[in-house]
């Protein structure tokens, strides 16, 4: 899901303006000959690799377990997966806040990795203990399948949301903690930082590919317990490796979270909403010391920097001057608010992307997946999604961007918003392809009793994967470039919240479609035919409307 094209932008966002804030394990200024560098960065990369293996190994094949083993409906199963992924990404904001405000990146990553290991262990138990599953569905025509009961689902939810809690803490801090191991003021180490991000995204892609091929195969052909057990073991080893390097890391002391500043400005503006604007903006708090020029946009927030009780009459009456926000703080919050239109525009892309993790995997389950004598696991078809992302990442950097530079005569080649717009267009065609394939699949089975080849799913994986290669880098680059300097560290958290909202919107969309069709899911010979084209068409139509805003 990550793209190499963001490497330089992310390096800039992680560069510390205060290298003196870096300390060793004992709180002393760092000795670069004994701390940091590639040894510690490698240990951190191992943690991210393990997190990818765990999360992707769970999410990309979970819907088949929910439908096949727990006998849940396709709609409910899809919503469980999307709610899990949405919560995981949303908790990235919480993880970033905790690290910035209190614990620091190292402690947050260490605790989050331990929580993730606990969650995957619980999931292993939930899928291996016989009492945690309903009885097998041997003859659904005579005896309806028994759905998992509340106790069984409670165990599953506990495991999934424990993983989400840990994964959110890792996601929002591991890249920053890795970049802390290099000194941006040292040209040699700054160059190494760039290579670190390349290796970071390589580890993410490698972990994802391993999960959707090896782990999914083990889950389907050896056993869920073995598949999730390997993930749990991998995460436990990663925690041990991370802790083993404690004395060698470089640490950045917590300096407060930008979310605190945002909350202070918004709440202060609300409390002062009845105050009148001063006749001149230079009467606002620290107007002449502002590092960000005052603007007339979103003037309602300016009230947070109005100095109360500072008139001669107030001083004569003994009215105390309250502590207002500064003009710089208010303008920084304005800049964040101005990001929200693009933030909301991108939500629909991730709604489309979530279909690749849920309904498309379920489609593959009921299609002909044979390749000679070998049957490809349905979850492994996500391999085509990640391969396409890697392919278009390379094409973007080596072919498309240089070509665009010649046409646009700009250093970027394509602007951030143009990349987002291209990604949205790809997502529209991806959902269109998904709709056509689903219509053909259902008609073939209902009319002829045949299953079409699962390789018909490749075009939608290709189109959505290509869209992600554009939309991901464009959105993240836009957030990092447009965010105020002191709030660039929260850009990753803001981006993760977009993914989160996309997954949650998917859950709402599936629920609405399920309700509108009166839950009429076709069942023929233990074969569930989901109303995929309804969901795909709705997502396609909404994405089409949003695409024009993103460009």
TrEMBL record:
The keyword Nucleus does not apply. The keyword Transmembrane applies. GO terms for cellular component: membrane. The chain crosses the membrane at residues 80-99, 105-126, 200-219, 225-249, 335-356, 376-395, 416-437, 457-480, 492-513. It is found in: Membrane. It comes from the Eukaryota. InterPro entries: MFS_trans_sf, POT_fam. Keywords: Membrane, Transmembrane, Transmembrane helix. It is a multi-pass membrane protein. Belongs to the major facilitator superfamily. Proton-dependent oligopeptide transporter (POT/PTR) (TC 2.A.17) family. Belongs to the major facilitator superfamily. Phosphate:H(+) symporter (TC 2.A.1.9) family. This is Protein NRT1/ PTR FAMILY 6.4-like. It comes from Salvia divinorum (Maria pastora).
